[in-house]
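Q: what does this look like with magnesium ion bound?
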Amino acid sequence: MSAGASISRLVVPRRGQSVWLIVLSAGAMAFLAVFALALAVSAAQLAQTWSAALSQTATVRLSAPPEEIDEQTAIVLEVLRTTPGIASAEQIAPEEQAELLEAWLGPDLPLDALPLPRLIEVTETPEGPDRQGLRLRLSAEAPGAVFDDHTRWRRPLAEAAGRLRAVALVSLVLIGGVTSAIIALAASAALASNGQVIRVLRLVGARDRFIARAFVRQISLRAGLGALVGTALALGALAAIPQAGGDVHLLSGFGFSGAGWALPALIPPLAMILAWLASMTTAFQVLRGVT
Amino acid sequence: MSAGASISRLVVPRRGQSVWLIVLSAGAMAFLAVFALALAVSAAQLAQTWSAALSQTATVRLSAPPEEIDEQTAIVLEVLRTTPGIASAEQIAPEEQAELLEAWLGPDLPLDALPLPRLIEVTETPEGPDRQGLRLRLSAEAPGAVFDDHTRWRRPLAEAAGRLRAVALVSLVLIGGVTSAIIALAASAALASNGQVIRVLRLVGARDRFIARAFVRQISLRAGLGALVGTALALGALAAIPQAGGDVHLLSGFGFSGAGWALPALIPPLAMILAWLASMTTAFQVLRGVT
Amino acid sequence: MIAFEDVSHDYGGGRLFGDVSIKLEQGSFHFLTGPSGAGKSTFLKLCYGELTPSAGKVLVMNKDLQGLSRNDLAGMRQRIGVVHQDCQFLDHLSVEQNVALPLSATGRSVPDSDVADLLSWVGLASHAEALPPTLSGGERQRAALARAVISAPNMLLADEPTGNLDWDMSQRLMSLMIELNRMGTAILIATHDLQLIRFAKSQINARVLRIARRKLQVAGADL
Amino acid sequence: MIAFEDVSHDYGGGRLFGDVSIKLEQGSFHFLTGPSGAGKSTFLKLCYGELTPSAGKVLVMNKDLQGLSRNDLAGMRQRIGVVHQDCQFLDHLSVEQNVALPLSATGRSVPDSDVADLLSWVGLASHAEALPPTLSGGERQRAALARAVISAPNMLLADEPTGNLDWDMSQRLMSLMIELNRMGTAILIATHDLQLIRFAKSQINARVLRIARRKLQVAGADL
Ligand SMILES: Nc1ncnc2c1ncn2[C@@H]1O[C@H](COP(=O)(O)OP(=O)(O)OP(=O)(O)O)[C@@H](O)[C@H]1O
Ligand SMILES: Nc1ncnc2c1ncn2[C@@H]1O[C@H](COP(=O)(O)OP(=O)(O)OP(=O)(O)O)[C@@H](O)[C@H]1O
Ligand SMILES: [Mg+2]
Ligand SMILES: [Mg+2]
């Protein structure tokens, strides 16, 4: 048995361009896969950042005569507190509000003297509230309250991030498919160009399983090796891309972060499994064709 | 001569997996190249949109005692007009300003009675002004004027778009390099697995040029064919991706638009040229090795 | 050993031979002759299942070849030694490893001394480490014969095993095959070398089959 | 035609033959014999430049082969017909197209009638459309000979051209080569078939070279 295993490693020629073709294409595909993966991960992260920054906050603006404002504020806060989908609601302190307005009004305006509307910052839960219902309740209970959920800012950003992630995922699937196809084809090229090896092995009474195993082992090892090198190179290239500084919060840096770096480690074993499946299928198909 | 040309088409076997390998890998690479190209084009467009929306506008806010405000406004406008890098400067009409403030202050505020600062909208030329110098001049001539160029919004967006474009371009270069390598390797596999063809042709006195031409012609035609099919499929896939609606302006749709669709038409001829160079080099290298 | 029952064969074109019924018994010695292109190699390929006949049945060790699975066919081939007309080897393995292949590729152990003995008998002792592409035409044939007999098969099928060999070496190989036959191996040799047939007949009881005019005939003592 | 000047050859290992000086004149007819592995094929490969000698010079048509560029070597080969011991073809072209290859692959025109005549002379008229892998061993040799002579070469080098052929067909091919020789083609045939040599010597003035004990000897009338 051990002699059989060792000879099965021997019977397939080690050299041959088609073998290098497998290493190279697996490596190239792994390289591209790492980039696509990084794009997908970054896009997902981006979408999350944008959601967190924009989608889960809203503002309620309340204008009312000065004598009613405190009462109405309490009513609005109560309404918000009892609305499912709202995590918290807090009145923005007058100083903070003044700061926000300074950009438009300048520091000299006597804000204290003005009948400024109250601003209430609302944090939504991930599911979010029933916005239409909330608006109706607010207009019934506090006619001066206006609910603003930043929709016009949020939608395009979320859509863009989603589209980017979709493109990256489609690319990943494509790369996987193309890799399998190339490896299957390279396997069948390797087998076809070794027609003499197969004929000789058949002649001396070797079983199909033995012949297939020898080829499949070699092809999937090469594919795994290629993918390993390709992944390593891609990770090196990614690490070399300068990351954005700390003050950038709207678009995070391209690449992996933290535990995300472990994700591409899946690529080489995955490539090996793909190669194993592709070459196994091809090998038995070719073997059935040769007499 | 015509017999020679036709026979050179004959001498290389039509079938063989390594030939399909060339078609498939050229096709796959073209497919990915189209996507990377689309990403690059979209990123460039994105960067431009964002630049146009954000980077070329700025605001000057002017606070001054009511009796000086008209005079100072004139001074500021004069300063801006004489600053190189500023395309235009216009005072925002009070009604417009009121609209902007409504979001924060509500509609009930007696804006007319307030000593609101003046807002001047500035449009920069593509080169932009010397911001530091402009700030100094403004503080000297109109101490109540503040120049706000939206830097903190603009920088991260521009950086993100730039990074996206860089990734896409790197991917394009990578795909080109990998394609050439795969085609060169496939060419040398095709030549190596046709050792008998080369030996026979040598034996009957065929010249190296004749042998190389036969192989090179076949390989580059296959690569061109593969790239053509891959490009067509990729364009089909791109066209099938639903585009963003008209109201999205911050992030434009992914893919090509208008004349941009002509860009990927360059891929198949480019692939053929790459294949021609790669297979030519490889062919003569292999031929020098075979006796 | 091998029995043909009403076997005909053609390659889609004209018929090569028809209605062949013959039994090659255990321990028998047969020559197969006939003009070039008559179908000698085809006959041999039918014997070990590389080809299936257009009509009729081929039984090897009492089993119909057509009913055999790929695995059973492989098992059967382990008991038949074959020398192809175009001797093919694994070009990246040494002559020694190629000769040992019928044992090593089927998980059987390879006694080094057997391989060395056999190689020196066929005059290839000094080429044990050589790669097949560096062998001369005659050396390939000798290596192919060594490979065919290393596993002590029940039957040896040899297609023109001496086509590229000088007379001395041909005699030497023939002696080896006669020796194997005496030890019980059934032997079938396709050849056009009448001198070789005469040499064998002088030493052993061999029958001559001849393919001519689309028929398989058993030749008399007229050679 | 071909001249060897003090030629020795070895493949890195032991020397095959040394100090060979011989001239094969235009219109001459030579046989080359010797035991298997003596170096007959090697000698032929030296003649048409597939190998370069370890020492000494090989002149073909008064040109030193070692000084020739790849292009000149190709041009020279167009005037030498070669039958390899292992006949290789372009497996995807028909026998007819393979036979015509020496002309078509060098831009010369191919008279269809010549190809057909030649094929029917070597008994392959019915296989003109066949693909080489479907040919029998002897049919391959005949196709290879046809390919070697289609371009009316100045010199024909044939390595065991009748190894897989029956005696009738061998005689027929030998007659073809004798005919070519009478028309001026120099011929060198490596063979171990003494009967064939005798047959040729009965019809034409042929000399026999023999490689033995690392030397090239010119055999006398002792065959
Ligand atoms: N795969 C095939 N397809 C079609 N025809 C074939 C095939 N194999 C062989 N033939 C034809 O069948 C005939 C017999 O071939 P075979 O190889 O059996 O002859 P043979 O008796 O061994 O001849 P030789 O002595 O020349 O080796 C030949 O004419 C050959 O062209
Ligand atoms: N490329 C090579 N490398 C190393 N040794 C070689 C090479 N080619 C041939 N030989 C050795 O050189 C010797 C002579 O080979 P060659 O083919 O010339 O013999 P030959 O006289 O034609 O024999 P045969 O009659 O068997 O064809 C053989 O022992 C062979 O093993
Ligand atoms: Mg045969
Ligand atoms: Mg030889």
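The two ends of chain C are 26 Å apart (CA to CA). The mean pLDDT of chain C is 91.
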